[in-house]
Amino acid sequence: VEGRNLSRALLGRAPDNLRPEVRGKALIAAGMLAWDHPDGRADMEAGLSVLRAIGERTVDMAMALRCLGNVACARFEFSAATEYYEQGIALFGELGNLRGAAFTLAT
């Protein structure tokens, strides 16, 4: 949680004109640092939303989807977990990252 808090504090100091892809990736990173904290999930979702809005398709996004799947699974939200995993696998595949797709399948 400490890493997430530091990341969020830095984001709070960022200029208003911070490039959306930087803001989105920073939110994802903050969320992944605190994946088991309620705010971690919200940060990852917010980061994905920012990146989707500008049409980004990145490994960071696929990793966040896998992490969100893990969070949902740990909370016994299996339908949501399946959705996140499927989206992550598809994105890893689209990006040609077969290792990421395989790792997500093994999760």
Notes on the protein architecture:
The protein has helices spanning 2-13, 20-33, 38-53, 59-74, 78-94, 98-106. The protein is mainly α and 107 residues long. Helix 3 (38-53) packs antiparallel against helix 4. The longest helix has 17 residues, at 78-94. The two termini are 23 Å apart. The mean pLDDT is 91.
Defining key terms:
107 residues, mainly alpha
- Rg, alpha carbons: 14 Å
Percent helix: over 70%
Number of helices: 6
Question: Mean pLDDT, rounded to whole units?
Answer: 91
Contiguous uncertain segments of 5+ residues? none
Compact summary:
The chain has 107 residues and is mainly α. It has helices spanning 2-13, 20-33, 38-53, 59-74, 78-94, 98-106. 79% of the residues lie in helices and 0% in strands.
Task: Set down the secondary structure blueprint.
Layout: H1 2-13, H2 20-33, H3 38-53, H4 59-74, H5 78-94, H6 98-106
Helix pairs in contact: 1-2, 2-3, 2-4, 3-4, 4-5, 5-6
